[in-house]
Amino acid sequence: MTTLDNRVSSRPIPNPSKSLITKLNAGTGLVVGIIFALGTYYLLNNNSSDDATVNFQHYNRTLLASMLMWSVGFLVGIGAFIGPWRWLIGKDLTAEEQLYLAGDGQGIKRYFKYCTDHKVVGIQYLVGVITMLAVGGTMAMMIRTNLAMPGGHFITASVYNSLVGLHGITMIIAMIIVATGPFGNFIMPIMIGAADMAFPRLNALSWWVLFTAIPVLCSAWFLGGIPTGWTAYAPLSIQAGPGMNAFLATIIIFAFSTAVAGANITATVVAMRAKGMSWNRVPIFVIGATISVALAVPAFPTFMLAMIQTALDRTFMTSFFDANFGGSGWLYAHLFWIMGHPEVYVILIPGVAILMEIVPVFVRKPLFSYTSAIVGFAGIAGLSVLVWAHHMYMSGWMPMLNGPFMVTTEMISIPTGLIFLVILGTLWNGKPWLKMPMLCVYAFLWNMLVGGITGLYLSDVPADNYLHGSMYVTAHFHYTLMGSALTGAVAGLVYWFPKMTGRMFNERSSYVAFWFIQLGFQVLYLGMFTAGAEGQPRRVVDYADTFHVSNMVSTIGAYGVGIGFIVLLWGVVHSWRHGIIAPMNPWGAKTLEWTVPYPVPLVNFDTPPVVTSDPYGYGKAVK
Q: Looking at residues 25-39, what average pLDDT do you find?
């Protein structure tokens, strides 16, 4: 049987003569990237001033420039710019070179090079996301271990502060791409009947740009860490040590990656749907992914702008955020939260859309009120850009606007309620097939209910006056992001695993992982809600004895979640290597990705499909 490691196209292996493209891969990218970084560092590191402020700024300039040039150098070394350069000089790539770029006939090697096949990019994103979640989760376990008892000395206060910031930004980046990265690249084009993404080279670029941000972020460990938390509020971030440069460079690089990926997904869905796939026949996951990236494209540049301005304050003594020289900390807060709250729904919507894709398949009923689902997603996206200042209630900024922001925040419960009704309506009178992806739907309903209700308290100004900055807030947003969006992504992993790997996910490990994660999750954040209601602040390395019991409970729950994800990771590795060979359509689904064989052909469909019905036409539930 064919596995992921040795699947090949039926075409002969192309021979693009002695093209430079055939010599480039991740290894050459690493070498050239390091050369660019070191060259930039030694070129700029020539300051000898006796002024400490001048030295500080010069060192920041050198580090930041070196990190950005590492990214550029890696992309040069892996061959990301060969296509555009050849086009500019009037010698575009030959057909054989383009096939080589697509990884045709190259086996596992194509996963370590600049490959334009959207399925390869999807697998690259999947492995990258799993790695980032594993690293971020490990940092979370270190934080919880230190908080198990008051006066914990598992880690020092400075390391703890760095862990909080690095855990936060690592998980945020991972969660932004957890659904649209792997499934938006591998599954979505096949789901709409497209031969590939609209811009295959940009698709590959989006992954490798993101990849270059990961070593940059990791370098913060060796540069004193990130002491500001993942929000990196100015002016603290302006005064922070050299590790902050890694944070700034990471966000700038990541914002570029998301812009490229978002534009590509949008263009693909708008322009490359199969004949007959009108907008009312588009699978709901595609709708959710498109709305998500449409929200991200205008939101994330504000965060990128805030990072650029912070970098300029740190390196060239500008004064965007320094009040001593006419700047304003309010400006940073607004730029950050104009991104920060839409970002929640950039994460949430694709995960929920995956679950809505799963429900009809496992209940064998049409999706209840498809139009209401789209209205719900659109309403959430629209209102999400009107609520950012509820994070600033306690800052004292414009108290007269607290009321309007409170209203818009509470209004989000209306489109969210529509999403609930669509799922509940699909479940109504159904006889669900209780495989692990379907269990995730029930977990989502509970988790999102808790996250939504607790969020209503935080949207209310008097209640937020007490709860703001407490562990209650931490529990709330983890219920929203991890309990809902990550639950949807895990369900999508098990659901689409047969199509992405050709093997079924180990069923026993999926059940064990599900129950450990979900039960541990409830215990973990029940303890945090209790601690927050009692008044324990977040982001503190130590706490009063009053909060001992709730923190011990949370830590026990965290270890349950950790065990669950270790089991899930084992299931991924074991199933990928030794899993049962999957049939073409193991779930009996009606969307187009289940009509193509494994391995999926390079151009997805031998004959362009023609769509004649919606993807959820199951009729009445089977009795």
A: 96
